[in-house]
Predict the 3D structure of the following.
Amino acid sequence: MIPGTFEYHRPKTVVEAAKLLKKLKEARPLAGGHSLLPMMKLRLAAPTALIDLGGIAALRGIKKVGSKLVIGAMTTQHELLASALIQKNVPILHETAILIADPQVRYVGTIGGNVANGDPGNDMPAVMMALDATYILAGPTAKRSVKARAFYKGSYETVLKAGEIVTAIEIPAQGKHGYSYEKLKRKIGDYATAAAAVILTMKGGKVVMCSITLTNLGPTALLADAAAKALIGTSGDEAAVDAAVAAARKIMSPAHDTRGTPQYRTSVGGIYVARAIKAAMARA
Amino acid sequence: MSKVHVKYKVNGQDVEGLCEPRTLLVHFLRENLMLTGTHIGCETSHCGACTVDLNGKSVKSCTVLAVQASGGDVLTAEGMTNADGTMSALQEGFRQMHGLQCGYCTPGMIVRAHRLLQENPNPSEEEIRFGIAGNLCRCTGYQNIVKSIQYAAMKLRGEEFKEAAQ
């Protein structure tokens, strides 16, 4: 199984990459390639040109800028897992990255590819929405930033315009918080049957801040706002968790696929929301 | 489609050649360099039979373009022996512990285990199982593969592995 034919370019700078993407019709950026190349083999994607971002050093690395953590788009899942900065400031990214694919794929797969591809099965979009992260996008002439929560429009549809690439992800300081990413998968390497991310803060025995997001339970990662509101102001007792689960289930619309029926995935989706809430509270 | 020039260091030797941009690394290794130790299994980046070491990382060579990897340092199953041509600790482990039956997954297993032991010379059984989670074996049930890697890890640390193969 090999992909169809395409032109290959390996630019050295973001501007050069963006110009090529804009100029060449049906061109796609190539990050780790572990989503795109399999799709090209199956002819589910047939770009006429690939713009390999692997030669752009500026897209790599994890650093602290002021109170924010900035992760270059070409940072691999393996590099995320090895980062003390990530472990200390946003441990949910460590917890999530280790659940993605397998060692070989994590050496190559990038955080930018994971968030920019728009696949509802990818794990990082929901986590970035829970953290209220911002994506930095660069085009041939201008940069802009878009909140993760406003980036996804549908299955494989994002706000990215022709010639734009995600260059970095900015994560605001989280302070002392509880976190959890709970993922149900059939086997190592699989996409989620259902998964939930929770970030919350407790004060005086009550939940004061909470965000809950869902993976693979709709056409995009979902922000379960009503579920979070059901928890805020409570002690996180069983009744509050039940209310949050019920609110989360209301917005789930999973596909019917080999991972199960929509009814089954909505059912386990709720269970994973409850587990993630409890795990996050235990760490808060 | 015009061809592109690629070059690598493969098992310590400089090599170069021409290929289409769509040529996968595994095909370049097998068909241009005739290094058929790297196997093609699922071709969908699940099974790990095509695992090679690229710039110190285990990668599935069916999901890396040959041109994408150009300039890289590649280690394949053929490069797994000791410098004097004798069996490496891992190869010896797979032989002593019966770490293979049909053998199809073995090159990928050994190349992956090589990197695992470079990163973690004293892995627990759980760490070995997690570390080879990207390599599928349909024969052994993994028991003896894990023992083969434990055998090699201990030999490389100058210790003796006392368990028997199952």
The beta strands of chain B are 4-10, 13-19, 51-54, 57-60, 73-75. Chain B has a mean pLDDT of 96.
